[in-house]
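This part of the workshop introduces the protein records we will be handling. Each record describes a single protein and holds just a pair of labelled lines. Instead of coordinates, the fold is spelled out as a row of discrete tokens. To make this concrete, we reproduce a full record directly below:
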Amino acid sequence: MTVQDFNTHVSRLRPILRQVGFAFFRNGEEAEDVAQEALMRLWLLRDSLPEDGSLQALAVRIAKNVCVSQWRRQKLRTTIPLEAVGASADSAQADTPLEEQEGEHLLAEAIEQLTPSQRRLFQLKQSPEMDINQMAKLTGMKPRSVSAKLSEARRRLHEYIKRKM
């Protein structure tokens, strides 16, 4: 699927995905987070997406899975301290050098401190084909807002890592 085709489909799928999120969380911000996360996942799959009528069904399924994942993440945050999660992640990666492991863990911790929209934009920015205008279309934000959120995310990551080192 070309980028232009993707953008065309995204414009009609966004309201549907927001409805899925709102039906689950009953919150406009959470609904927008669900829509953006689902669209980001679709973007990452864009080369293998069907161009027939099944795209909407796939998008809704992804949005429902995002709702459940976010709900579980919220439950984990309230019941399991971050240190406990970090300890189990470290033991699972025993083959990597300790310094690399600590760096990855610190970065993961720092990324977890970002807001959901900052986290999504930061992840989208890692894609080589993704520029500010594409990110703006995908998220429904203005390009300036995307740049500002990315800048704020980088600043928060830098401050968090600096404080922990």
Notes: The radius of gyration is 17 Å. Residues 1-79 form a domain with the Rna Polymerase Sigma Factor; Chain: A fold (CATH 1.10.1740).
